[in-house]
Write a structure and sequence with these properties.
With 171 residues, the protein is of the alpha+beta class. Helix 1 packs across helix 2 and helix 2 crosses helix 3.
Length: 171
């Protein structure tokens, strides 16, 4: 069995060449990271040691970042999900540093992305209710200057997954 390896393509980003067994292992782990090595090995048609070596190499290569447990927000009483669109007139390093720290310090921000286009940032904020969102909003704008904020309440989650599509070829 071939083992995954890293290589440096022309754009200088690290990529990993995956074979069918690697892709199957990754698919299984994305679905259920609690599977034992024996279960994974059985499903990919390999023995335990080569499967463990592949998983270790995929971790070392950065393909597998970490293993986590995904919680149900509603079971925790976090029933309101807001997508927050942020425009800023500030683009200097000091503002960005304060803004990123403010986001990282707030556990209710479960995702944050810097965007191209008219909107500078989009946040996914998971809170109990609209009142909790308002406390988050007031706290954020008191900490960093923001030009414009638009909050969109998600009425229904239609699809949510942490599983990535695993390409046939990473080259």
């Amino acid at each position: 069995m071939a083992e995954p390896h890293t290589e440096k393509p022309a754009d200088s980003q690290t990529s990993v060449r995956l074979d069918d067994v690697d892709r199957k292992i990754l698919s299984l782990l994305q679905e259920d990271a609690t599977l034992s090595l024996d279960q994974i090995a059985d499903q990919v048609g390999a023995s335990k040691t080569p499967v463990w070596n592949r998983i270790r190499k995929l971790r070392e290569a950065g393909v597998i970042r970490k293993q986590v447990t995904i919680l149900d927000p509603e079971a925790l009483g976090l029933e309101a999900c807001f997508f927050v669109l942020i425009r800023t007139s500030e683009h200097d390093k000091d503002w960005a540093k304060r803004f990123l720290k403010a986001l990282r310090d707030r556990p209710e921000v479960v995702e944050a992305h810097r965007l191209a286009g008219d909107i500078d940032y989009i946040l996914k904020v998971q809170v109990r209710n609209a009142r909790a969102y308002d406390r988050f909003y007031q706290s954020l704008i008191n900490e960093v200057k923001i030009h414009n904020v638009t909050a969109l309440l998600s009425m229904e989650e239609i699809k949510a997954t942490s599983a990535l599509p695993i390409p046939e070829s990473t080259r």
